[in-house]
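User: Hey, my collaborator sent me this sequence without any context and asked if I could get a structure. I don't really work with proteins. Can you help?
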Amino acid sequence: MKPIQTNGIPFIQPLQECPEWYWGSDYTSGDLYEAEELYQQGHPIRKNRLIFIHYPDGTLVEPMIAEEGQYFGCPAWDQGRLILLLADFPRAEIHLFAYDPDAHSTTPLTSLPRSAVEDCYNLKPVSSPLMLIRHSNDQLFQVLWPEPLEFQLQPRECFDHRDGDRLYFTIWFEDPDYREEVLVRDARTGEILQRLDGSLTTLPDGRKWLLI
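Assistant: No problem. I've predicted the 3D structure and written it out in structure-token form, which is a compact way to encode the shape of the chain:
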């Protein structure tokens, strides 16, 4: 049993597409969307912490320390880098940073005005290629960076991954038995190009299996 000092973060989870890294946050004011709501309602928010633990050695890194009024969202992994999402509520900005574990360095990737999105609900970075996306309550899907795009999804449709010029979404039905389909959309227009029967499963290394 290996003790790892996280200073109050009791839960970690694997970083998608990178089984060597786990991440955790202390959620002092809930998730990113809940912290945003508290700030907009005039309540004080406590900045949160974001840590990463490397497997199998258990090395812990904390690439950035948030300032007051800042809050980390869900991270991602892309081309050997840890991708950090940080909202700065007082400055009304959204930032993406890349942390290189080998060089122990953090680099800014982009900064967007908070007005670029209605809210931070389901706002997250995904890879690969690296994108900042948002999936709203009313089924609006947005790519905010690097190339803006938005279109309406069908009910029960969720983003899964991107492969070149194709975006892959999953959708479930009960008619009357439960089943799933994969919708393949054009990454430039959102047009449905293909429907596949079956469900997608992501392997630890990021590969996909279609279960038919």
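In plain terms: The two ends are 40 Å apart (CA to CA). You can pass these tokens on to your collaborator as they are.
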